[in-house]
Specification:
Distance between the termini: 37 Å
Shape: globular
Helix content: over 70%
Number of strands: 0
Largest sheet: none
Order of helices and strands: HHHHHHHHHHH
Strand content: under 5%
Radius of gyration: 18 Å
């Protein structure tokens, strides 16, 4: 049961292991190029995801409202705290962090890499229509889409872990919780989500991917996780007010 989700988890762990072990052997120049390439590829994927929807105004409204909700809930700070807790648990490192302090004032580059790797990998692996549709089908007994996603996430994990290290592997937990949860409700979601709603969900996810690409390219440190409520709101807006 849930073969696709379990395979996806295994692919992220395996890719992280390869990248974390081999990454330190890469020259810094190569790692910088890999990160820049990942930023460009993420931007291209984000643009592609935003194109299919015919309800872009509703999607933009959903993402904007989602950003307000996410900032009030401080979702990104929560994910960073979770990343720090996982590092303390698995690496035995004591970390005290003031989330109100500017990023430059937060302790140790190692902590920042671990936590940032966890946050970015979680966002990249867990947003987008392939996650939702693939998980629904996985819950219905068809893992094909998630098997495809597993291959993509595995290669991405290698690249991310070569820069961010073992924090990327912790995103396997996020994959299990999110995709497993969607798979459990697969039959109900299949009857609720129409094609326009899925397109809107994908477009909202694409906007978040564009935000991630700016972070990967060191152009703007957008708190992308705080936009996550917009991904859930976009299909709801289309259901309520779509044409």
């Amino acid at each position: 049961m849930f073969v696709g989700t379990l395979t996806n988890i295994a692919a992220v762990i395996a890719g992280t292991s390869i990248g974390a072990v081999a990454g330190p052997r890469f020259p810094e120049r190569l790692r910088q190029t890999v990160m820049a390439t990942l930023g460009l590829l993420t931007a291209a994927l984000g643009i592609r995801e935003t194109i299919p929807t015919d309800e872009i105004v509703l999607v933009l409204g959903a993402v904007l409202l989602g950003a307000v909700i996410g900032e009030l809930l401080r979702i990104e700070d929560g994910l960073h705290r979770l990343g720090d807790a996982l590092q303390r648990r698995f690496a035995g490192t004591e970390i005290d962090i003031d989330v109100d302090a500017p990023e430059t004032a937060r302790p140790t580059a190692h902590r920042a890499r671990f936590s940032e790797g966890f946050v970015i990998a979680t966002l990249v692996f867990c947003i987008g229509p392939l996650t939702v549709v693939g998980s629904i089908y996985d819950g219905l007994g068809d893992p094909e889409l998630l098997l495809l996603k597993s291959g993509l996430d595995g290669f991405a994990s290698i690249a991310f872990a070569s820069v961010y290290g073992w924090g990327v592997g912790m995103a396997a937990m996020s994959v299990g919780v999110i995709q497993g949860g969607i798979a459990l409700g697969g039959r109900a979601l299949e009857t609720v989500l129409t094609d326009p709603m899925l397109d809107a969900l994908g477009a909202a996810g694409g906007i978040l991917l564009l935000g991630i690409s700016l972070r990967l390219l060191n152009l703007k440190q957008i708190r992308v996780a705080n936009l996550l409520p917009g991904v859930a709101l976009a299909p709801l807006f289309v259901w309520l007010w779509g044409g």
